[in-house]
Automatic annotation (TrEMBL):
Name of the protein in question: Eukaryotic translation initiation factor 3 subunit D
Primary location group: cytoplasm
Keyword Heme: no
Subunit note: Component of the eukaryotic translation initiation factor 3 (eIF-3) complex.
Domains (record comment): The RNA gate region regulates mRNA cap recognition to prevent promiscuous mRNA-binding before assembly of eif3d into the full eukaryotic translation initiation factor 3 (eIF-3) complex.
Signal peptide coordinates: none
Source organism phylogeny: Eukaryota, Fungi, Dikarya, Basidiomycota, Agaricomycotina
Record localization: Cytoplasm
Keyword RNA-binding: yes
Organism expressing this protein natively: Crucibulum laeve
Gene Ontology MF term list: mRNA cap binding; translation initiation factor activity
HAMAP family: eIF3d
Role summary: mRNA cap-binding component of the eukaryotic translation initiation factor 3 (eIF-3) complex, which is involved in protein synthesis of a specialized repertoire of mRNAs and, together with other initiation factors, stimulates binding of mRNA and methionyl-tRNAi to the 40S ribosome. The eIF-3 complex specifically targets and initiates translation of a subset of mRNAs involved in cell proliferation. In the eIF-3 complex, eif3d specifically recognizes and binds the 7-methylguanosine cap of a subset of mRNAs.
Stretches with biased composition (Pro residues): 314-323
Family: Belongs to the eIF-3 subunit D family.
Amino acid sequence: MPSFSLPPINDNPEGGWGPSSSNLPDQFKFKDIPYAPYSKSDKLGRFADWNDSSDNRQAAIGLPTTQGARGGGPGGRRGDRNQAFGSGTASAFAYFHVEDESSFSLVDNKATAPRRGGGFNRGRGNVRGGAGWGTRGTARGARGGANTRGGVSQRGGGARRGWRDWEKNNRTRESSVVISPQWSMLEEIEFHRLNKLRLEVDEPEELDSYGRLFAYDKSYDRVTTKTEKPLQLVDRIKYNTTTSDDPVIQQLAGKGVANVYATDVILSVLMCAPRSVYPWDIVIVREGNNLFFDKRDGGPFDTVTVNENAADPPQDPTPPNPNNPTEKAAVPETPSINTATSLSLEATYINQNFGFQSVIENSPPPAVDFAHANPFYGPDETEPLASCGYRYRLFDLGITEDEEIKICVRTEVDAYSAGQGNPREGQGLVTIRALNEFDPRAQGAGGAPDWRSKLDSQRGAVVATEMKNNSCKLAKWTVQSVLAGADLMKIGYISRANPRDNTRHVILSTASMRPLDFAGQLNVSLANGWGIVRTVTDMCMKMPEGKYVLVKDPNKPVIRLYAVPMGTFTGEEEDEGTSEDEESGI
């Protein structure tokens, strides 16, 4: 007959429920784990009761207990005034977060909108400077659409979003230049650091002047929306030669008149860098103790931006994925005329032709020749030259008297104003630019009003919108005028004859202002601009001889300085790569 033996029974001499800690068998692997005693009356049917707000649940997760949480006794639940057995020892199993939480930050610190009577207060009024609901009327739009001052518009308690607004901030721009793996990044400067720089610079010294100027046609100052003039296509030649290819700068560099050489177009981009949104790049070459700031052929310096600083600037379509045939087939054959690239080319065309058209080429008044002829116009050229004068000016960037840091800048003026002095002596010089309107209803218009209906009656609103949407472009034009020593800036307002046609334009008006006064309206600080130039100069002077590229990040307010091979952007790098491929048999 088989035998039966009882298993060992461990009695608890301490009188509790369950085995004693001293009698715990070794075969169980719980010897070093603390044990929480419990009472027979404890409810063990639920692993976690989230609806229970009693102190038992708080103690079980390691939170401090408060007696009478709901008006009851020590247990916290009404009718349960007896403290559960063993509840004080449950904290042995509690989880404590010991990691550093200093890296966490509160994203939204706005006050939560309180509920009143089960719904929002439907009174009439405005919220002044906050997102919370006021006592007398809160937002006008618990019923739909809100009007807030200093806060976000609210509809039903939430922000009103437009069509595909979630996608607008996710669009990324490409860099103006491809960053090669062979480049090494040397410095990185954020825009908020550039805004703190200051350097006061005295009046410059004029080294020489070249070119011929025609008189500005003052009849364009009297143009209105009712007497608009068509923009004409004028065939003229105007040069935009980079610094290193300028024969005059080469001669001045041979004489050692300065340490840094640049053009007003390149220098204005650097001085207004904190306002820029679109990417750009400047090529910097150090030869001996000299620095040359250059632009690339076909780079961003050859075109004019449109609504760069708008809240929702014009966008280029996302390039299709070549590996996805569906995306490739979905691309329209005719590109939009309101993309960023198309508008930039259109604005460049408008600026050039408005400058050519708004001068008087046939005397009177006669043309004015500077000390020398145009340095870029060759004897084989047959097309007529545009009105343009080049003034080579020397600015002293030294902080102390013993410091020799001077910059030679080639500046440009477009015309002269008859009867305001002698242009040869730098009097009555004019720079001519143009703002363009494409389609007020198109994406990227930046909320601009219709010029034909507002330009004559509400010019201030039009100007304020342009100063907001084109802050960087207007600042660069103003800095160029100040560097050139121009007395007047002429800015034309040019619109499409038909919003759907980007080939025909009309001149609606022309504004005239003094560069220094306009710089004050735009809040342009020349001292800050010179501080940026001096900082970049000192940064490059510390580097060895070679070629460098200063690149504006396409999506962040940051500029970076890269060291690049000497053959970069000259074609030599590509030739070397081709010869290496041929030798390797590729």
